[in-house]
Design brief:
This protein has 145 residues and is of the alpha/beta class. It has 2 helices and 8 strands; from the N terminus they run E-H-E-E-E-E-H-E-E-E.
């Protein structure tokens, strides 16, 4: 067997794409995405707004919810839900830099950057929620193989 397949793209459903667009613009730029490569479209056949942040390594997108789900409560423990998405940082300094950015963007900080020994002696991470309550993590882990 070869190497594990790489992720090509992720797409997260949000309640109101227009309300969270500036948050995700700031987050994706902090994560290294070039906003000049951002695409925003409405897919009429699916009645769905989509924003995609494009990169050679993978793409990250957000899309609008179906009308009947716009008022649903997000909970990461619902079947079918994403528990959280973790982005790997190259250093602890990068985690700290992104922490400052997400604070400025108004993210709800769940855990400030620190070592989480339950995940390993060098597991330095930040945990936060986007405006809808979707959980994200930025992690630098020297022990990761």
């Amino acid at each position: 067997m070869g190497l594990p397949m790489k992720i090509d793209h992720l797409q997260v459903t949000v309640k109101d794409i227009n309300e969270v667009e500036s948050f995700y613009d700031g987050l994706m730029e902090a994560l290294g995405f070039d906003l000049n490569k951002k695409i925003k479209v409405y897919l009429e056949e699916m009645d769905m707004d989509v924003i995609e942040y494009l990169d050679k390594s993978y793409d990250f997108g957000i899309c609008s919810a179906l009308k009947q789900y716009e008022e649903e409560t997000i909970h990461r423990r619902k079947p079918g839900a994403v528990h959280h998405i973790a982005f790997r940082a190259s250093s602890r300094n990068e985690v700290d830099r992104i922490y400052k950015t997400v604070m400025e963007l108004g993210a709800k900080i769940l855990d400030e950057p620190k070592i989480f020994p339950q995940h390993g002696p060098n597991y330095y991470a930040l945990f936060f929620n986007d405006p809808d309550g979707i959980k994200y993590e930025i992690v630098s882990n020297d022990d990761h193989f």
